[in-house]
Known about the structure:
Number of domains: 1
Helix content: 25-40%
Distance between the termini: 37 Å
Order of helices and strands: HEHEE
Largest sheet: 3 strands, antiparallel
Oligomer: single chain
Amino acid sequence: MLVRPHDLAERMSGIRQPEIFRLPIDAARLKAREILDQFPQGGYMAVIENWRQLPDGRIEFTMRHLPTAE
């Protein structure tokens, strides 16, 4: 398997890949609230970004873990 330098650098940095959710409106609201209410873990906090409503009515959003300022 071919590994690009960018992929290797990302893996070594310890930054987790963003997680994408596609949920019905009410479930998306509950999941986003659950994520935002979490305390930072392991020096990283969860943030919600890039949300949109899909043609079928579901909400798609990305959760990313960013380093906390310590």
